[in-house]
Specification:
Blueprint (H helix, E strand, L loop, with lengths): L4 H4 L13 E6 L4 E6 L3 H15 L27 E9 L5 E7 L19 H24 L5 H24 L1 E3 L5 E3 H4 L14 H11 L3 E10 L13 E2 L7 H7 L8
Antiparallel strand pairs: 1-2, 3-4, 3-7, 5-6, 7-8
The structure holds zinc ion (2 copies).
């Protein structure tokens, strides 16, 4: 897929002039909002945009001959469309500046790419759970298709498949054990602020990935920013090269937990 050069060249100009994007949400533990501003992470994101534009791949830290073809950025300008990228700038225990980068969800089927923060769960465990479960669901689907719509056996298998799908979802939720700056480890389903459970993909955005990575490595964040890179999303609410606050449906209900325990809040 050909990369659209016009859209790629309009990056820095797209930064909104009134810069004041923060991320955050309500924390049940402290019964108040925790927020984190973009601060120096804005510049870290602009640097990342430059690297993406120059190298046209996300594994730009490795020499071209070692690059994984799945890491090319033209993937973001095709049917899959673009995705969010994020940067966190923080300080370690000795006060040294640390910068971490994340992409939301999977990149072209990859959960892990060197030099990018890992998902909030163990990717190997995720693959184990989903591969076995999905294989069984597919097997049942094939069997169901062969049976007559009225047969009892078919109804039985449809039920079985439904149970299995629900079980699979619970197993996946069980992998999302998240950590914050108080050192509290909890299931994502337990910390989600909302009447219904967390929507699919909750915890896979850049902000939770970056904050959990910082918490686990004793890095105190001073800024976090996220931007969109690639072909605009279907609803056109995400445009190439623009910064965005954390999303309302998946991140807002969990970021209060993730930001809890930061020194600035004490
Ligand atoms: Zn989000
Ligand atoms: Zn709190």
């Amino acid at each position: 897929m050909e990369v659209n050069k016009d859209r790629q060249s309009s990056t820095e100009e797209n930064v909104p002039p009134s810069w004041g994007i923060t991320i955050g949400g309500y924390c049940r533990h402290c019964q108040k909002d925790h927020r984190l501003e973009a601060g120096p992470a804005r510049q870290a994101c602009l640097d990342l945009m430059t690297n993406l534009r120059v190298h046209q791949r996300i594994d730009f830290q490795v020499p071209p001959h070692q690059s994984n073809p799945l890491c090319r950025t033209d993937y973001l300008f095709g049917e899959a469309r673009g995705k969010m990228f994020g940067a966190l700038v923080g300080r370690d225990e000795l006060g040294r500046e640390k910068i971490f980068y994340a992409f939301s969800g999977q990149y072209n089927g990859l959960w892990s790419v060197a030099d990018w923060v890992e998902p909030v769960f163990d990717p190997a465990a995720f693959v184990n759970v989903t591969e076995d479960g999905e294989r069984e669901v597919k097997r049942l689907t094939r069997e169901i298709r062969r049976l007559s719509p009225q047969s009892d056996r078919r109804k039985e298998l449809v039920q079985k498949r439904r149970r299995l799908s629900r079980q699979l979802m619970q197993q996946i939720h069980g992998l999302y054990r998240v950590t914050n700056f108080r050192g509290a480890g909890e299931l994502l389903t337990d910390i989600f602020n909302g009447e219904n459970g967390p929507p699919t993909g909750t915890g896979d955005c850049c902000a939770p990935k970056l904050l959990q990575h910082a918490a686990l490595h004793k890095i105190v964040p001073v800024g976090l920013a996220e931007f969109y890179w690639g072909k605009e999303n279907a609803s056109r609410s995400r445009q190439h090269g623009f910064f965005y606050p954390s999303c309302a449906t998946k991140c807002e209900p969990i970021l209060g937990f993730f930001l809890c325990g930061l020194e600035s809040d004490v």
